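I have been asked to look over a protein record a colleague put together. Alongside the sequence sits a line of tokens, each denoting a local backbone shape. Please read both lines and tell me whether the tokens look consistent with the sequence. I do not need a full report, just your reasoning and any doubts. I have pasted the whole thing underneath without changing anything.
>
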Amino acid sequence: MAYDAVAFSPEPVTGAAPAALLIDAAPAPCPDWAARNPDRALALLFVAPRDCDAVDVLVSL
């Protein structure tokens, strides 16, 4: 029997959380870490924007 002749039914992935829920559940970035890694902090806040102390640190740099 050829491989493409077999009927497969896709199994839904159970127990996996959507990425949006994981991003929302992540803690706010530490201001000290944001001062040491401004590029990474900006990338993180671009993906998961939030009002936190790290934003103030980045603005002051």
